[in-house]
């Protein structure tokens, strides 16, 4: 599961920096199916908890005076952010943006 979440964020990062490439009709359906799978996985309460724990690990790395605010923000906004991500994967069109599928 961790790999899938990491892969999703790598794809999003690449979509921001990727140059225009030609679509790959072989990979496009695979990419789209993966995004549908990931969308369903992101809606899982276990994934929410895992992501919150990982972000809290990050919060422990920031200066102590910011760690409290960081952890509070994760607890307050984390579930909402994860829900928005899960609901909007299709709208982000990462497969199109990295050039695997046609725009």
Automatic annotation (TrEMBL):
Keywords from the UniProt entry: Disulfide bond, Glycoprotein, Signal
Domain of life from the UniProt record: Eukaryota
InterPro entries to which the protein is assigned, alphabetical: Saposin, Saposin-like, SaposinB_dom
SUPFAM superfamilies: Saposin
Cleavable signal peptide: 1-18
Coiled coil stretches, renumbered: none
Domain Saposin B-type, first and last residues per copy: 24-103
Name this protein carries in UniProt: Saposin b domain-containing protein
């Amino acid at each position: 599961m961790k790999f899938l979440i990491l892969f999703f964020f790598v794809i999003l990062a690449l979509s921001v920096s990727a140059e225009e490439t030609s679509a790959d009709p072989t990979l496009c359906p695979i990419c789209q199916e993966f995004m549908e799978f990931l969308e369903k996985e992101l809606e899982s309460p276990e994934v929410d908890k895992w992501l919150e724990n990982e972000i809290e690990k990050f919060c422990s790395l920031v200066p102590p005076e910011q760690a409290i605010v960081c952890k509070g923000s994760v607890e307050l906004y984390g579930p909402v952010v994860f829900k928005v991500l899960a609901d909007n994967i299709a709208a982000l069109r990462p497969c199109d943006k990295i050039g695997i599928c046609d725009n």
